[in-house]
């Protein structure tokens, strides 16, 4: 990059954070997996489903009613959340009930929500 006089901008050659060298960056494959995981969370409908499931276990019909969308749309989004291990389900007869996969998902949801409310 050139400055106003046409000279090249100086490049910093010293490390200001030596501790950064002690921790290697994420490997490419792990960073791609994490980006894909966060991509799943980048959908507003999926986040709204997580918000409902953060309160209680629910069936597809209750989730659809709570979000005012079709059961088919809810099922589609739940499949993506299930494949990413964000939600799990249990069957009771013909009913299927969904809940957050574990406390880490709940913690992640609450942490991000609190961060954005600051």
Model description:
- The protein is elongated, with a radius of gyration of 22 Å.
- The protein has a 3-stranded antiparallel beta sheet with strand order 1-3-2.
- With 118 residues, the protein is mainly alpha-helical.
- The longest helix is centred in the last third of the chain and has 15 residues, at 103-117.
- 50% of the residues lie in helices and 12% in strands.
- Strand 2 and strand 3 form a beta hairpin.
- It has a single domain (34-117), classed as Arc Repressor Mutant, subunit A (Orthogonal Bundle), CATH 1.10.10.10.
- The model has no long low-confidence stretch (mean pLDDT 90).
Give a quick summary of the entry.
By secondary structure, the chain is mainly α.
List the helices and strands and how they pair.
Layout: H1 28-40, H2 44-53, E1 58-59, H3 60-67, H4 71-83, E2 87-92, E3 95-100, H5 103-117
Antiparallel strand pairs: 1-3, 2-3
Helix pairs in contact: 3-4
- Proportion in helices: 40-55%
Question: What's the shape?
Answer: elongated
Strand order of the largest sheet: 1-3-2
> What's the domain count?
1
Q: State the helix count.
A: 5
Using the CA coordinates, give the radius of gyration.
22 Å
Order of helices and strands: HHEHHEEH
Query: What class would the helix/strand composition place it in?
Result: mainly alpha
- CATH class (first level) name: Mainly Alpha
What is the CATH topology classification name?
Answer: Arc Repressor Mutant, subunit A
Distance between the termini: 37 Å
Could you name the CATH homologous superfamily?
Winged helix-like DNA-binding domain superfamily/Winged helix DNA-binding domain
Largest sheet: 3 strands, antiparallel
Kindly report the average pLDDT value: 90
């Amino acid at each position: 990059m050139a400055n106003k006089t046409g000279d090249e901008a100086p490049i910093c050659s010293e490390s200001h954070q030596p501790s950064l060298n002690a921790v290697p960056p994420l490997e490419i494959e792990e960073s791609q997996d994490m980006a894909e995981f966060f991509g799943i969370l980048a959908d507003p409908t999926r986040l709204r489903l997580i918000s409902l499931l953060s309160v209680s276990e629910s069936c597809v019909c209750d989730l659809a009613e709570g979000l005012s969308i079709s059961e088919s749309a809810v099922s589609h989004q739940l499949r993506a959340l299930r494949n990413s291990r964000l939600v799990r389900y249990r069957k009771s007869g013909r009913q299927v009930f969904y809940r957050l996969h574990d406390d880490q998902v709940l913690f992640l949801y609450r942490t991000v929500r609190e961060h954005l409310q600051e």
